[in-house]
Amino acid sequence: MGKNPRKSAGPLRRWLVRMVYGCRGPVGTRGYLVLGMHRSGTSCLTGLLETAGVRLCRVPRWNRFNPKGNLEDDRVWNLNEAILRRCDGAWHSPPPSVPESAAEYGELRAALQPYTRIEPWAIKDPRMVLTLHLWLPLLPKARLIGTYRHPVAVAESLRTRNKMPLEEGIELWYAYNRRLVEWHKRRRFPIISFDVYGDRYLSQFERLCAELNLRYEEAKARGFYCQGFVNHRPVPDYPLPDHVRRLYEYLVANSLLGQSGLRQAG
Question: What secondary structure letter does DSSP report for 218?
Answer without folding.
Answer: H
